[in-house]
């Protein structure tokens, strides 16, 4: 399977397992799971064909491990805009986490902090390099440092997805460190 096809299938899966399952007639269960056979049949019925082998390849090779398979079920690991309960238990975070963004968002973040926007949680990275890659998807990246230890001490709840993305409801501005201008 070539890289272009892998990306195309991955984007299709993200769209329908995270944001618009109803668009192809899927109903995710409470945990975000759907039967693989139902997903493939629904995609085929809506003009996007892929095989179980292609799906397995996308899941196995996705560098961000966006999807999980359990038995005959599949789900997105995080990033949903539809209501799901991933069943992730609270977890103590490392002292610092990171968030990649772009300069045009900094004024709003300084005022309101980090908010989930259309998602159910704010996504944070365990390392600066990952946050840099996340921010770079929208332009020249700016990496913010989150004082996760202080947030946790103050009662904020963190969860970590199967692919290592840290999730929390919001990050108030007082817990953020911004890079020096320049």
TrEMBL record:
Family matches, as InterPro entries: Ptrans_KptA/Tpt1, RNA_2'-PTrans_C, RNA_2'-PTrans_KptA, RNA_2'-PTrans_N
Q: Which UniProt keywords apply?
A: NAD, Transferase
Coiled-coil region list? none
GO MF annotation list? NAD+ poly-ADP-ribosyltransferase activity; tRNA 2'-phosphotransferase activity
According to the UniProt record, what class of enzyme is this? transferase
Q: Which EC number(s) does the record attach to this protein? A: 2.7.1.-
What GO biological process term is on the record, naming one? tRNA splicing, via endonucleolytic cleavage and ligation
**Signal peptide (from-to):** none
> Into which family does the record put it?
Belongs to the KptA/TPT1 family.
Alphabetized PANTHER family for the sequence: PUTATIVE PHOSPHOTRANSFERASE, TRNA 2'-PHOSPHOTRANSFERASE 1
Function in brief: Removes the 2'-phosphate from RNA via an intermediate in which the phosphate is ADP-ribosylated by NAD followed by a presumed transesterification to release the RNA and generate ADP-ribose 1''-2''-cyclic phosphate (APPR>P). May function as an ADP-ribosylase.
The name this protein carries in UniProt is Probable RNA 2'-phosphotransferase
Query: Which species is listed as the source?
Result: Streptomyces yokosukanensis
Q: Which gene encodes it?
A: kptA
């Amino acid at each position: 399977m070539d890289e272009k096809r892998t990306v195309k299938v991955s984007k299709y899966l993200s769209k329908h397992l995270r944001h618009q399952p109803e668009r192809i007639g899927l109903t995710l269960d409470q945990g975000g799971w759907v039967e693989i056979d139902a997903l493939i049949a629904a995609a085929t019925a809506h003009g996007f064909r892929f095989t179980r082998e292609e799906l397995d390849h996308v899941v196995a090779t996705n560098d961000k491990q966006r999807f999980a398979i359990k038995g005959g079920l599949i789900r997105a690991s995080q990033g949903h805009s539809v209501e799901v309960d991933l069943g992730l238990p609270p977890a103590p975070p490392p002292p610092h986490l990171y968030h990649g963004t772009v300069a045009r968002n900094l004024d709003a973040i300084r005022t309101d902090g980090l908010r989930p926007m259309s998602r159910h949680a704010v996504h944070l990275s365990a390392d600066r390099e990952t946050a840099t890659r996340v921010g770079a998807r929208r332009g020249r990246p700016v990496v913010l440092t989150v004082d996760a230890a202080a947030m946790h001490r103050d009662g904020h709840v963190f969860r970590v997805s199967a692919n290592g993305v840290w999730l929390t409801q919001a990050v108030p501005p007082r817990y953020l460190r911004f890079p020096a201008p320049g």
